[in-house]
């Protein structure tokens, strides 16, 4: 009976959180972001991203307060130490996007073009001036230029959420961006237990217990060591992508445990 009541409560709370997220995004678009037009055009996206980051922190607090989620952040200070960086991370759940943006108030990210037309989220994406993936040729230069101007960039090399039980399969876009800007990469390892909000999973397919989300930031790495200087860009990108897949697979195997007893500096997102 106790487990059944817990399940019913978490189902109701999950529905409430999804409704709050959608309505919150719509209210920001209708009531808050229009006020940013009083500011100079160049400063609007940065202000919008900070507002979104704060809203996401409040949303994560709500999920934790309702007993749906626990978050453990390891080595968070490594992100603050490199404010202009390319952050690459695996993508096991929809929640990890919210958590990373909550942690990085000025971060930009690449989003699907479809989100620009989304009824609830479209206004948020446009206000923050997130980077659309609709033009792959312009995407690489735009991302590298954004980082060069001091803006951290979050990229999920898989291009979509991971499939539980399947090996990581990275696209080459992240490698092209890192090579184009001669950028070091800050890897972030994300574990979610039990799995929830994976690719294609409906919101009401809730897990049997509270979700534990662990986010671990790793020291930056240089990817130019993984490509021969004389190789054409396509071959170099393939080599770097393969090495990134191998690196993340091994790192997740070593550090990807969703137990909070690992070494490192632990924080909670409140």
TrEMBL record:
Q: State which residue ranges cross the membrane.
A: 12-39
Return the SUPFAM superfamilies for the record: Glycerol-3-phosphate (1)-acyltransferase (SSF69593)
Q: In which pathway does it act?
A: Lipid metabolism
Q: Where is the Phospholipid/glycerol acyltransferase domain?
A: 85-193
Spell out the molecular function terms from Gene Ontology.
acyltransferase activity
* InterPro entries recorded: Plipid/glycerol_acylTrfase
Q: Which UniProt keywords apply?
A: Acyltransferase, Membrane, Transferase, Transmembrane, Transmembrane helix
Repeat keyword on record: no
From the Swiss-Prot or TrEMBL record, give the protein name: Lysophospholipid acyltransferase family protein
Organism, per UniProt?
Answer: Methylobacillus methanolivorans
Q: What is the lineage of its organism?
A: Bacteria, Pseudomonadati, Pseudomonadota, Betaproteobacteria, Nitrosomonadales
């Amino acid at each position: 009976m106790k487990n059944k009541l817990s399940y019913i409560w978490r189902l109701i709370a999950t529905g409430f959180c999804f409704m709050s997220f959608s309505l919150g995004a719509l209210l920001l678009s209708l009531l808050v972001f229009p006020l940013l037009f009083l500011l100079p055009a160049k400063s609007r996206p940065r202000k919008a991203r900070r507002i979104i980051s704060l809203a996401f922190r409040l949303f994560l607090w709500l999920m934790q307060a309702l007993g749906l989620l626990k978050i453990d952040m390891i080595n968070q200070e490594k992100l603050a130490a490199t404010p202009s960086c390319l952050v690459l991370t695996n993508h096991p759940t929809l929640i990890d996007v919210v958590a990373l943006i909550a942690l990085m108030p000025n971060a930009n990210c690449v989003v699907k073009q479809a989100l620009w037309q989304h009824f609830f989220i479209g206004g948020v994406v446009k206000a923050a001036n997130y980077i659309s993936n609709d033009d792959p040729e312009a995407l690489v230069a735009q991302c590298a230029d954004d980082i060069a101007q001091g803006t951290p960039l979050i990229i999920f090399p898989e291009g979509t959420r991971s499939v539980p039980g399947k090996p990581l399969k990275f696209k080459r876009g992240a490698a092209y961006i890192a090579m184009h800007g001669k950028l070091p990469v800050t890897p972030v390892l994300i574990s979610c237990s039990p799995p929830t909000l994976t690719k294609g999973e409906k919101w009401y397919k809730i897990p049997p217990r509270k979700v534990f989300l662990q986010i671990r930031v790793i020291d930056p790495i240089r990817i130019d060591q993984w490509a021969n200087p004389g190789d054409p860009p396509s071959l170099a990108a393939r080599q770097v992508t393969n090495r990134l897949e191998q690196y993340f697979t091994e790192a997740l195997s070593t550090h990807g445990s969703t137990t909070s007893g690992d070494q490192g500096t632990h924080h909670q997102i409140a």
